[in-house]
Write a structure and sequence with these properties.
Helix content: 40-55%
Strand content: 15-25%
CATH architecture of the largest domain: 3-Layer(aba) Sandwich
Number of strands: 11
CATH class of the largest domain: Alpha Beta
Shape: globular
Number of helices: 11
Strand order of the largest sheet: 2-1-3-10-4-11
Number of domains: 2
Distance between the termini: 44 Å
């Protein structure tokens, strides 16, 4: 294994990832030029959508195929049957790269200006307020159900084919509430078309210091974030995984990269492999109960 690491890499490395324009695609494309320069071999980004997971799982465990992905990798088995991969059997974490919190936003027509006021409003109108969401099991869906559970309110989910239509419906007051990722909705908040009540990270988001957290606004412990990371096929030599982690973490921790990601609504984490594994396990444990309680499945 040491010999393999000493000679690694000696050919191009492929990063399999989700669809173009996704956070995982952005991560892959932002680190690939620097990683190419650092390792001395070309890094090729290959967009395969959800099939990227299966392809990576079946790839040789030699470090030349990596996967850049997020929650669908480890939550899909909670949402549907017959998932053909297992996050622990088929993969080794390299680094948890990014974390993207959400914003609890409301339509301009909603009178609430704080989370506490929104909860009070929802309790006086049980079943009358709607929250917009994209596909079943998406972050907007999970966040909406977690909010319902922890705030003890009765909201009705309205499903849309993607965040774009859901946000358009929110702006038009067809729905009243939504909890999308910061980067997706921030332009509409800045323009005044939507009102942000709170951020879903446990601490204030660096680029939005004046927006309180949900947990500090009446729902202690409320936290939702989309995470993205780099993984390798199972049985990839530990020396190669550690070498990749070292170089990717150094790239991510550069000030210019942190600033670029922050502008896109994401914070750099740049963790160890073990820390990424721990976070995946915690994510599964947290969302399993929410998914079970709400009867969530993929639409």
């Amino acid at each position: 294994m040491v010999a393999n690491c000493q000679g690694f890499p000696n050919k191009p490395i492929r990063i399999l990832t989700a669809e173009p324009g996704s956070p995982n695609d952005l991560l892959s494309r932002m680190i690939s030029p620097q990683l190419t320069a650092t390792l001395g071999e070309q890094i090729v980004v290959d967009n395969r959508g959800i099939s990227a997971i299966e392809i990576a799982a079946k790839s040789p465990a030699d470090g030349y195929t990596l996967l850049s992905y997020g929650a669908p990798l480890w939550l899909s088995s909670l949402l549907r049957r017959n998932v053909r991969w297992d996050p622990f059997r088929d993969f080794l974490p390299v680094t948890l790269a990014l974390s993207a919190p959400c914003l609890l936003v409301v339509a301009p027509s909603v009178p609430a200006r704080t989370v506490t006021e929104l909860i009070s409003l929802a309790r006086t109108k049980p079943g009358e307020l709607n929250y917009g969401s994209s596909s079943g099991g998406s972050v907007t869906h999970l966040a909406g159900e977690l909010f319902k559970s922890m705030a003890k309110v009765n909201l009705v989910r309205i499903n849309y084919k993607g965040n774009g239509p859901a946000i358009a419906a929110l702006i038009a007051s067809e729905v009243q509430i939504m909890i999308p990722n910061v980067g997706v909705v921030l332009p509409h908040v800045k323009s005044g078309r939507l009102r942000a009540l709170a951020v879903t990270s446990l601490r204030p988001f660096a680029s939005l210091p004046n927006i309180p957290t949900v947990t500090a606004s009446g729902i202690p412990g409320f936290e939702v974030s989309s995470i993205s990371g780099i993984l390798a096929p199972a049985r990839t030599p530990a020396a190669i995984v550690n070498k990749l982690n070292l170089h990717i973490v150094q790239i991510l921790n550069a000030a210019e990269f942190k600033e670029k990601f922050l502008l896109s609504g994401m914070e750099v984490v740049a963790s160890s492999p073990d820390a990424f594994s721990t976070r995946i396990k915690a994510d599964i444990s947290k969302w399993r109960s929410v998914i079970s309680e709400a009867g969530i499945s993929e639409d």
